[in-house]
Amino acid sequence: MKLYMVPLAPNPTKVMLYIAEREALGTRLDIEQIVVNTLKGRHREPEHLARNPFGTLPVLELDDGTYLIESLAIMEYLEERFAADSLMGSDPQQRARARDLERVVELRIAIPMGGYVHAKKSPLGLPPDPVLAQSIEDKLQAPLNHLESLLSDERPLLFGDRASMADCTLASALQFVRFIQADLIGERPKLRAWDERYRQRSAAKAVLKW
Ligand SMILES: N[C@@H](CCC(=O)N[C@@H](CS)C(=O)NCC(=O)O)C(=O)O
Q1: 2-81 adopts what CATH topology?
Q2: Tens of pLDDT, residues 12-57
Q3: Nearest atom, ligand 1, residue 44 CA
Q4: Mutate to test the pocket of ligand 1, among 11, 117, 118 (most ligand atoms within 8 A of CB)
Q5: Pocket around ligand 1 at a 6 A CB cut-off
Q6: Cα of 6 from ligand 1 centre, angstroms
Q7: CATH node for 92-207
């Protein structure tokens, strides 16, 4: 399989973290990672549009030459295809909870953080929008407080002892925020400690560059 990706971009990064976490647990996924240079606009060229008509990354090319074009579908495919030692485990309720948390982190935190970065100091050169940035920051407070309260039972990672998709998603969003020298963690000591702890993991060290 091949993963078309670009470093720093949050959606490819969370899948890269997911792959690195699985490999750290001993699963050989055998996925070649291929950079599509978005700064040079390569994702909008016919070669990439043939993989994904929406031109986004990541894209996973399967062994039969077909493609998956959504990051969550890619991670869930890898969960099911390599089910032994998967991040979500085998208990239906645990799996549902892991998915639940991933959705909260993605929809309420990671996507807004992406919008915040572009409104504040877009790496793609979009015009700054301070009013939008402030309104996103305001809306981020409740879900960030939710994570702080989850972590108050001293669990090392968002879902407990094992890395989960939620950790991968949050770490990739926070890297994007760090890239523009911003900080949205605020006065949340548990979340800040999680961030520092997560970045010490071998998977994070292999994938995160900022
Ligand atoms: N829902 C998609 C979103 C993918 C996405 O928006 N990727 C960004 C990078 S983080 C991208 O490719 N942006 C380039 C563009 O939209 O032109 C997913 O989860 O994979």
Answers
A1: Glutaredoxin (3.40.30)
A2: 999 999 999 999 999 999 999 999 999 999 999 999 999 999 999 9
A3: 17
A4: 11
A5: 9-11, 38, 43, 55-58, 70-71
A6: 10
A7: 1.20.1050.10
User: Which residue is it, tokens 């994702």?
Assistant: 43
Q: Tokens for 69?
A: 């074009």
CB 167 within 8 A of CB 20: no
Is the alpha carbon torsion for 184, 187, 191, 195 positive or negative?
Answer: positive
CA-nearest residue for atom 2, ligand 1, is 70
CA 15 vs CA 33, 81, 84, 189: distances in Å: 11, 15, 18, 27
Taking only the tens place, the pLDDT of each residue in 119-158 is 999 998 999 999 999 999 999 999 999 999 999 999 999 9
The residue whose CB lies within 8 Å of the most ligand 1 atoms, and thus the one to mutate among 16, 57, 72, 106, is 57
Residues 120 and 118: their CA atoms lie apart, in Å, by 5
Question: What are the structural domain ranges in the chain?
Answer: 2-81, 92-207
Question: Would you call 96 helix, strand, or coil by DSSP?
Answer: helix
